[in-house]
UniProtKB/TrEMBL annotation:
<feature type="transmembrane region" description="Helical">
    <location>
        <begin position="100"/>
        <end position="120"/>
    </location>
</feature>
<keyword id="KW-1133">Transmembrane helix</keyword>
<protein>
    <submittedName>
        <fullName>Uncharacterized protein</fullName>
    </submittedName>
</protein>
<keyword id="KW-0472">Membrane</keyword>
<feature type="transmembrane region" description="Helical">
    <location>
        <begin position="126"/>
        <end position="147"/>
    </location>
</feature>
<keyword id="KW-0812">Transmembrane</keyword>
């Protein structure tokens, strides 16, 4: 949906590292992580949840506390590498947090609203309906923004771990 795409974040960064060195470093670390069969580690970056090809990385972020859920990811990050010239490379990242909390909030609010309209009498029921919708949807929206922030911090950790230094610049629409 188009309105939920506004919750995604697009970031860019220019670096002096070459595309080949970054891709090779990531492939080595992902292969090393795939061979490791331990289910728990104290490392900052989990390379087991990354997929890479020659021009992009797909990173999934798994939080520790909600891993019992069927889909425990906060969302995913798609990172593209664009070689500008011989010296510079541009890293473009799109952060896509999962919006399941927003959809669950809407799914709970619809039957609650119908029940509220049937059971309450008077004009004030519409005011209570507006207040309940705004409270629940604002909490769900803040949850999506929190996941996007956590994914951005994780992206900065991944980029620093593979040797890319610099500040991510948010692209405004």
């Amino acid at each position: 949906m188009a309105w939920t795409n506004k919750l995604n974040g697009k970031y860019s960064l220019e670096t002096l590292n070459s595309k080949e060195s970054i891709v090779n470093t990531l492939k080595e670390r992902i292969d090393k992580a795939q061979k490791d069969k331990s289910w728990f580690s104290f490392e900052d970056v989990d390379y087991k949840n990354m997929r890479i090809d020659d021009y992009r990385i797909i990173i999934k972020r798994k939080p520790a506390l909600v891993s019992f859920m069927p889909n425990p990811d906060n969302g995913f990050i798609i990172v593209h590498f664009n070689q500008i010239n011989n010296e510079k490379m541009q890293v473009n990242a799109e952060i896509k947090p999962y919006k399941i909390g927003l959809w669950l909030a809407i799914g709970v609010l619809i039957p609650f609203s119908a029940l509220q309209l049937l059971m309450m009498h008077g004009v004030y029921k519409y005011g209570l309906l507006i207040i309940s919708w705004s409270l629940v949807l604002s909490v769900a929206y803040l949850g999506v923004l929190f996941f996007r922030y956590r994914l951005k911090m994780y992206l900065e950790t991944v980029l620093a771990d593979i040797g890319i230094k610099g500040d991510l610049i948010r692209e405004r629409k």
